[in-house]
Amino acid sequence: MNVRECIQAVTALAVLAWASAASISAQTVAGPWVDAAEARIDEHRKTDLRVIVLDDDGRGGQVPAIGATVRFEQLRHDFPVCVVMEAASVRGFDPEAPFFRALNAVSLRRLTAWPVVQPGGPDEFALEQVETAVTWAEVFGLDVHWGGMIAADPAFQPQWAAALDHDARLRAAARYVDVVGWTFAGRLQSASLYTHHVDQPWLDEPGLRWLFNHAQTADAGFELRLGYEQALDDRRARAMLLDADAKAMGFVRSDGVSVTHAFGDRFVQGRLQRYVTRMATLGQSVLLDGLEVGGGLLGPTRLEAALITLFAEPAVSGVYLDALTAGTAREASSALLNAQGDPTGHAMVVDRLFRERWWTDETIEADELGNARARVFAGHYRVTASLPDGRRFSSEVLVPRSDDERVVVLEPVWSDQKLHDTPGDASRIGAASR
Q1: In what order do the strands lie in the sheet containing 379-386?
Q2: Dihedral sign for Cα atoms in the order 74, 93, 230, 199
Q3: How many Å apart are CA 62 and CA 58, to the nearest integer?
Q4: Which tens digit of pLDDT belongs to each residue from 300-343?
C-alpha cells in the first residue's frame, strides 16, 4: 500500500467510526472523491427530460396548459441493480419493501454452474431449476443474467469435460449455447460465455474466436461476455486486463466482460478506482457479476464506497451483489439478508443509494408554454400532469441515458368526463415522445 492509499485508509476509518453511529438514512461516506464521483454520476447516469403539457382550446385545437404541475416519478432504474440468486426463488421477496424495491434484475450464476446444468454429458441438460428461477424473475419483472456457461478451470467443469479433445470441446460448447438460446429465447439479458480461463485455458484463441462467432451467428438473443473470477486484486486484475485486451485485439467478439470479486477488510476505495478506470480503457462494458464487500461492522460503509465508485464509471453496466444470505457469503457479516430474511445494513445501503439518493421523484411547475424540465436518472418513469381544475393525465415513458434532451408531450386524448373519472390512468392517456 502506498502513502496515498494509507491516507485514504486512515480517513476511511475515521469516517467509518462516525458512520457506525449514524442514521441508516444518512450519507455515511463523504469527501472530495465522493463529490467528484457524484459529478460523474450526474454526467453519465442522467438525462435531461422536458415535458410539454397541452390542453384542449375548446375549438378542436390544443394550447399550452396554464398552471400545470408535472410529477417525474421514477419506477425503475436503467442501471441493473441486482442480486445473485441462491435458489429458484428469493424467500420473502416483496417488490415494495426496502432493499427488494431497489432490485431490477437477478443473476443465476449459482444455479447455472456447468456441472449442475450438464452433469452427465454434452447432450444432457438439467434445466428445471433454471426454468423455475427464470419464471419467478419474470413474475416480478426482473431481468435475468444467466451467469457462467463454459468454465475453463477443471474445478468448475463437469467430470466428462476433461476427457474431450479440441474439436469435441468446441462441439460441446456450441451445443450448450444453442440449447440455452433455444430454450430461453427472449427471456435472458446476458451470460458469461467463457469463465475461469486466465490461469487454465480450455479453448485456444482460434477456438474461442470460433465459439463467439458461432454464438453471434446463432443469435442467442442475449449478451455474451468473457468472465473473470476474483479479478480485482493486484495480480489477477493485471492478468484480467491484459487478457481482455488480447482477446479484443484477437477479434474475439464478446459483448464485454463480467467480473466477480469478494472484498474483505482490505478494501481500499482508491485501488478499486484505479482498477475501474483501467477497465474503462478496454472500450468494453463491464458487468460486476458477484460483488461481495465484507469487513465486519465497517462492511456497509465499504459497500457504499464501492457502489459509488462503480456507479460513477460509465463503463460499468451493472452490479450483481453476491452474499444474499450468510450461507453463501465468504464473510457472514456481508450478507444482505439476515436469518429471518430481513435486510441487513448492507442491504439498506443499496436501498438508500438506489432508491433515495440516485432516484428521481419530483414535481415541477410548468412554465407559461407548458414546459417542465428536470434532469433525471435514466430509467422507466410515470409522468403526470395536474391542472388547476383538478384534471390529471399521465403516461409511462422510457428515458434512456442520452446527451440529448428527451421530450415528452402530455395531452388529453379522451373526454374531460373520462379524465375526471379516471385521473392518472395511464392506459387512457396518450403521450408522444422523442
Answers
A1: 361-365, 69-77, 379-386, 392-399
A2: negative
A3: 8
A4: 999 999 999 999 999 999 999 999 999 999 889 999 999 999 99
> Cα–Cα distance between 107 and 145 in angstroms, integer?
5
What one-character-per-residue DSSP string does 413-430 give? -S-HHHHHHSTT-GGG-E
> Can you read off the three cell numbers belonging to residue 368?
407559461
Question: Torsion over CA of 120, 123, 126 and 127, rounded to 10 degrees?
Answer: 160
Contact 302, 333 (CB under 8 A): no
pLDDT at 434 exceeding the cut of 70? no
pLDDT tens figures, 264-282: 877 888 888 988 888 888 8
Nearest alpha-carbon partner for 425 in 398, 397, 394: 394
- C-alpha angle with apex 285: 166 to 259, nearest 5 degrees? 60
Cβ(320)–Cβ(290) under 8 Å?
yes
Contacts of 266 (CB under 8 A, 6+ apart): none
What is residue 414's predicted lDDT score, i.e. its pLDDT?
Answer: 59
Q: Which of 78, 85, 28 is nearest to 308 (CA)?
A: 28
Average confidence score pLDDT of the chain: 87
* 288/290 Cα distance (integer angstroms): 6
CB 225 within 8 A of CB 218: no
Instruction: Report in angstroms the alpha-carbon separations of 73 from 76, 376, 394.
Output: 9, 10, 11
Q: The C-alpha cell of 303 is what?
A: 459497500
Quickly state the pLDDT bin for 419 (edges 50, 70, 90). Answer: very low
Q: pLDDT tens digit string along 23-39?
A: 344 457 889 999 999 99
